[in-house]
Amino acid sequence: EAQVTQNPRYLITVTGKKLTVTCSQNMNHEYMSWYRQDPGLGLRQIYYSMNVEVTDKGDVPEGYKVSRKEKRNFPLILESPSPNQTSLYFCASSFKAGGYGYTFGSGTRLTVV
Amino acid sequence: TQLLEQSPQFLSIQEGENLTVYCNSSSVFSSLQWYRQEPGEGPVLLVTVVTGGEVKKLKRLTFQFGDARKDSSLHITAAQPGDTGLYLCAGAIGVNSGNTPLVFGKGTRLSVIA
Questions:
Q1: Which of A105, A112, B17, B91 is the most buried (most CB within 10 A)?
Q2: What is the pLDDT of residues A18-73, one digit of tens each?
Q3: A8 preceded by cis ω (within 30°)?
Q4: Which chain B residue lies closest to A34 (C-alpha atoms)?
Q5: Which residue among B97, B104, B106 sits closest to A99, beta carbon to beta carbon?
Q6: Residue B1's pLDDT is what?
Q7: Cβ of residue B90 closer than 8 Å to a chain A Cβ
Q8: What is the pLDDT of residues B34-67, one digit of tens each?
Q9: Of the candidates A1, A23, A21, which has an alpha carbon nearest to the alpha carbon of residue A13?
């Protein structure tokens, strides 16, 4: 089944403790992206990747890191999480950045206390 | 500045009613997509429209792309409780849209009451 798999689904952590949210897709998509979704603010793009070893900042990149060493994986790293990073996170992939449908993961609900 | 404005933000209707939600911009899009997101899940693609004036139907849902490719509408006929969710529009800006990430609207949250 074609899908984007995110892990974990839920995570509660403490301020400053480094964490990684994994994202993997099995569709050989070139484009992958991370979003956070907050009430009243919609989906906001954190980072995106056009292809392997190519990453770029989205609208809200501060406090996040990403890497794209393999085509299928695009992990999101929070080096020192803070409470304002409490949010619902989605990974998405697509054949290309625009003009093609995005496949989203099921989301990761992160709480930083 | 929000490139894609969706209206209304919230809509609560009775089962069986018809409704239309809108997605507007001052920018021209090479294509526009609609997604539905259910609570606790990621958005799921419903349709992509690429030609000005294009109309696509998906069962009781009708999607239209404006002639100037700056706006779109989603009409639901005889809404059902299963239509409840957040409806997002997303557009690809520019000629070489393959290299430009989609722009998302903030969504219309629809609640259909049985």
A1: B91
A2: 999 999 999 999 999 999 999 989 999 999 999 999 999 999 999 999 999 999 99
A3: yes
A4: B101
A5: B97
A6: 60
A7: yes
A8: 999 998 899 999 999 999 999 999 999 999 999 9
A9: A21
Question: Residue A70 half-sphere exposure, CB side, CA atoms within 13 Å?
Answer: 9
B85 touches chain A (CB under 8 A): no
* Structure-token pair, residue B15: 């089962």
**Whole-number Å distance between alpha carbons of B74 and B66:** 11
Instruction: Assess B7–A contact: CB distance below 8 Å, yes or no.
Output: no
DSSP secondary structure string for all residues of A52-80: TTEEEE-S--TT-EE--SSSSB--EEESS
**DSSP assignments along A31-51, one per residue:** EEEEEEEETTTEEEEEEEEEE
From CA B101, how far away is CA A110, in angstroms rounded?
24
Determine whether the interchain pair A92/B105 forms a contact, defined as Cβ–Cβ distance below 8 Å.
no
Residue B41 is nearest to which of A41, A102, A106, comparing CB atoms? A106
